[in-house]
């Protein structure tokens, strides 16, 4: 899944981190923050989430900069991973603690005094930075709107019709799904079509020669049908031969006599009987 922001913070800064997440989500940023994290070694999913985010926002604090705590290693590992990609790392300071090199040389947005109700300059600058990555403009004005400023919000949405804030409540266009024909419907349509074709009068247009594409399609179908017929014929022929395996090689055998008898053709006929009397 793609995210606008992956928020990286120490476990001890979870409360402040969740407050920042709520404020960013209120501006319709897609934020990934694992508030149930209990591991201190980056997992493949942690790196995958960083790769799938436009910005990796790292919250630096006394807790995240404490290198004696293994949880700090998790924060530093993801910060180094984000810094290796051009323009992905965004740094935030939750207090006056300065992170170690090389992060100490990079810009940080200071949110030391930020609360759920109080907005500080560093937060405006942070939102401007994050919004520019997705061509979102003038989010500062939206931050200052009160819940009762309905007309002002409507005017802002009109000026920024493509912003996610302006698309709230608007249904996404759905593509019409192609109807699925049932077997009964197909059969009915086929029967109706055949009846209509039989009843329709033959016109000159119907007798006109088909286009080249239709001719090619006809010969292709004819060839397939001929091939099927040939297969059926040879199958029938093979089955017939299998039912009478000696039909082509049968030899008529001479009738055999029962054991102990002489064949009739060896007995003398009446004409061959000799008179031995004198």
What is this entry, summarized?
Helices cover 42% and strands 9% of the residues. It has 278 residues and is of the alpha/beta class.
Describe the structure.
This protein is α/β, with parallel strands linked by helices and 278 residues long. The protein contains 9 helices and 5 strands, in the order E-H-E-H-E-H-E-E-H-H-H-H-H-H. The chain has a 5-stranded parallel beta sheet with strand order 2-1-3-4-5. Helix 1 links the parallel strand 1 and strand 2. The chain is elongated and about 140 Å long. The protein starts with a strand and ends in a 35-residue tail after the last helix.
Helix segment tally: 9
Could you give the order of strands across the largest sheet?
Answer: 2-1-3-4-5
Major β-sheet annotation: 5 strands, parallel
What is the end-to-end distance? 129 Å
- Averaging pLDDT over every residue, what do you get? 81
Cα-atom radius of gyration: 45 Å
For the secondary structure, the number of strands is 5
Unreliable spans? 180-187, 194-213, 246-252
Secondary structure category: alpha/beta
Shape category: elongated
Percentage beta strand = 5-15%
Helix content: 40-55%
- SSE run: EHEHEHEEHHHHHH
